[in-house]
Amino acid sequence: MFPDDIRPLFFEIVAQTDLSWKQAVRALELCIDCWTATGDREQILEYPEFDSSAIRLVVSMLGELESSYRSIECTTLSSEQEIAVIDEARLSELDRKLLPPDGYETYSSLGDTHVPFPKLHIFPSATAIVSAIVDQIDPDTADRFGIVLAEGSLYSALIESALEAREIPYRGGPGFEDDDDVRAFFRLLEATFSGSDQRVTEIRPVLATAGIDLPRDVEEQRVDSLEPDQLGGYVEFQEAVDEGTFRDVVSVYESISDTRLVELRRELQNLGILDTQVTEDHVSRFRYYLDAFTVPTDSDATDGVLLADATSTAYVDRPVVFYVGLGPEWAQSPPDYPWIDREAYLERDLERFERLLQNGTQRYYFAQETQAGSDVTPCVYLRRLRDEPFDSFGDLPHTRYGGHTTSSLTSPFPEPDDPLTPPQRIETISQSRLKALANSPRDAYFDRLVQSPSSVHMVRGTLLHEAAEIYVSDPSILEDQRGRMLDAMCERLNPYLGNSKQAVQRTYLEVGLDVITAYLGENPPAEGSYETYDHRDHENELATELGVECDSQLTERWFASPSIGVHGYVDLIQSETSIVDYKTGNKKDASDILEAASIDLVDEYPNFQALVYLAKHREERPDERIELHFVHLLDGVDEALTGSPPDPADLVTTITYVPATFSKFVASRDTFESVTDYADSNKRCRALHPLGYEAYRDFFETHDLPRAGDNPERRATITEDFVAYAQERVGEYKYVRQGCEKVIDDLDDVPTGYVLQSDLDAFEAFVDEQLEALNEYRNSRFPVAYREEGPTWDRVDHRDLILTDR
Hints:
By secondary structure, the protein is an alpha/beta fold.
């Protein structure tokens, strides 16, 4: 049998009949399958469910058109000839028409020698398997090797990529439809028909194949929002699709990609559409054709490593054979046709599988017990070949291997013994990089190598920050030119949005501007002199577009402090003891913010921004109380849309630094008000309100209360002393004891929203440790994990670049 015969038959059928391509493919496949299985071309018409006009038409044409199927039906070998048949049971009924009634000899491809059940090589990952295999092959010995694997599997793509990387020839790999230029051609066609919401990120790979390179920061923008000079040859390609034929579009693609698509032209010509108008329907039909048929290529290799499909192959003509995967996809499922004997089909496929496993003089079997955290089920046929029951590959005879080998597959670029020049020591770090290091140092490293694209949320945040800068510089601009400002902001944001989302995002921007106006109107910044901050020149694009000045000395102040080890920008210095940071995400309360900034046990979602800003401003005002206000510009959108915008104060989360020890802070009015912030009936209030703040302060100024866990015995003694002190002044009531004990329990640590001197001291020591580690990483290797339990993967930006089995 020669399956390639089906394509010429299809060409004739669509050329000579009115059948659609799908009708022709379906009818042809059914007729050929039944003819092959039964040996009778017209047998399919005996089944009422298949007796249709399309089937009758194709059956008739198959009796007239030249093909290998018709030639076999019309040919019978003479019994006078010497005929040997190998594995007769594998012949179809149509194949048997070649044989005379008798006079031929039969042989089995299986010998009489018993072959033991194969011993497996179990690896932890697909890349480790591929590395182990490819390490054994070089271009000079490629003809000696065969690799059996499921076509279209992860292993298939990895093996082909690894062989290509080492310039090792192979055959049986990607077909016509897998050619990079053919794929890019059709992906560009589909992109052209995809409408206005097509994003650059969706078609970047095919644009790159066509020689069109776009900057990373436009990744999330709509393709139709870019200027023609940015898209280069893609504009010419789109014009050819809109106005020309397939021949024209192929020519344009060849021109912009500097390649030749000879085989694509041939297939379009065979199908009779090369000189027809390009339409979405024609493109879909050609895609269907490629899915239905295997198209041979002129460049198919005839030597090199043989890649064999595990589901359709029984023989591999190579002395060394690697079997890769051995999973459930290695077994075929019989088609649900009435002319198929299901049991006989499965038995023949089992025999095929058994023969397949015995090819080659040297055989090696590779498997994984798990993939992506799920158990891999062994091929069902392995159970038929083994007497003892088993559940996993680990229950079979095997040798287990660890992670990657030292293959050059895992290190495609030679690594120098030492850096060409010693890296310059890093003295400061930004809060964003500090956060990334505390989650995954390797992800933080890739942040420096891979440019992150802008997104609608990033651009919206930038626009609102720029609007706030403009307001601080001159409030009248936002008040007098609000409409112009909104239009300019939307013009910057709309390239990231579909038409249906543009009005929604305009509303978000309006609400953000309302919050900026309300908050800064109630809390206007005060001018001051700040010696430890710089004012770096930076462009406010919104101000430039509006043609207005933006020159406030209080916004976007830069700091780089080697003594603390941090650098960054502060959105607004509101006063000598108050700084502001604008947020455009969901509001977080003070406990969430400080929990994320924990350093004793680094949080699952670390964020040290609050401590970075407070530590920096403490350097500016070392002995003063400092407030950091997080203003959440978009948290009140829902309320604003109902006509009841929240009070600006409700959109602010404040973290306060107090330059005091824990014991001194306990004696402060802030703490007194915190521990009495309950209903009057609460026992804390019933004990402390009669006592009063002055008496409370006097006690704790003379009793140095430690934090919980530091000195339990001293805390217990001070608790009893405080109870006696209060009872002496308020009365020996039960509620006084209970209220005082609850107050001491509340004072296990600093009340929510406050940071003390020792907290910032500890944080600065933590930053020093991170900088030391970072400089060590730069001289050796960046580890995947910082915390023992590993990174929080949904906060890792470059997951596809991180190999977790190394």
